[in-house]
Amino acid sequence: MNLIKFLDEFTTDKMQEPMTSRRAMFGQLGSLGKKAALAAVPFGLATASNKAMAQSTGDVVGVLNLALTLEYLEDEFYAMALDSGVLSNNAKAEAIYMQISKHESQHVDFLTAAIEGAGADPVAKPSFDFTVGGTFDPFNENGAGQATAYAQLLALAQAFEDTGVRAYKGQAANLMGSAGVLTAALQIHSVEARHASEIRRLRGLEGWITGNERGAGMPAATQAVYDGATTEANIIQGGLDVTTLGSGSPFTMDAATQAYDEILTGDEAVTIASLFIES
């Protein structure tokens, strides 16, 4: 490939073309990125188990397929959000969604390459229903007002990012014996946390989670993201009541819960994702 010609496709002028054209170019870049990722799979992935079960969290490939399922969901959501035009009147939000979309596409390609590099099969991409049977209308396809659709786009993005952060953290223990995989997962986890904070800021919220509150304006259907076996309102860390720690203790309940984030188990993450999966 002629490198100069390739780079020319991503000049400022080209990037200002209509969204469908930009999406096509990012798709081309993603295809190239997948090939590059396959050649750079972290050391240690080749020793992973050959089991390829999307919802199993007891083996390395199972963990990667769970992560891939969540990344499929996020990747498609942001792509559809950008295509919908709902963000067209908010340049800041559109720019943020475009950047996050590129990250999620990278994550999909990386995880796919990692699983294939381990000699296993990546889980097939599900069909998603982001309306949850008509509960939401985030892409303004069924007549919801622009403001309503925009609010729902932000609310769902927050739920997806917070789910991803907790889910990656919840699988860390299952990757302890595979240092290369654990390192890669933590690198993605920290980026997902940055996404979550950025989306919260867009919604006019603080960047952290207070207790198990989903935040003003969040649909009740997303509460499971903040509950789980270990709720985000947990104040016991390492056997200590963290409200008794820190300068000026006792901390308030809010500050104590904000200082620590909790995990979601694999089953909990699958249950949340399944709300948006048709098949």
TrEMBL record:
This is Dessication-associated protein. InterPro entries: Ferritin-like_SF (IPR009078). It comes from Leeuwenhoekiella blandensis (strain CECT 7118 / CCUG 51940 / KCTC 22103 / MED217) (Flavobacterium sp. (strain MED217)).
